[in-house]
Design brief:
alpha+beta; 2 domains; 4-stranded antiparallel beta sheet; 8 strands
Amino acid sequence: MIPTRAIVVTLATAIGALAYSASTSASFRESIVVRTQSVAEMRFEAFDVFIDSGPEALGAYQVELTTPGGRATLVEVAGGPSAAFDRPPYFDPQALLGGDRVVLGDFYTGPDAPRGRVPVATVRFSIDGPEAMQIGSRVMVAGNAAGRQINAIVEVVPSAR
């Protein structure tokens, strides 16, 4: 049997560690405060991200998405329905803590890389207020499976899923 004193000391240590962690993560705490202040007007919206590589096979991409106005917070990044890009793309997890910018990127080196308008990701945001959400986007770089740069266009549309 574990002595009562050992349990109390363990619990006190755990509570102290949590309190210290909470006091040192101001950005996390601030994002919680922002979320709870306007829960009544908060909603969630999903957007599908497409890369149109034209006739070229899409082997890799890096795109920037922006949400001007500070009304949106990224809450999830998921892969697209394309077999080549069905896993979630790489992104900076700091984007989940707030900010108005996220960079997504992924690659595929298989022999059957998709061409044309390819669904590569779905992003979900929590949005404050009833106004329509506008997402800015731009292709930073795109390439084929051989690593050569290609021209591509990014399109972000409200998700039907």
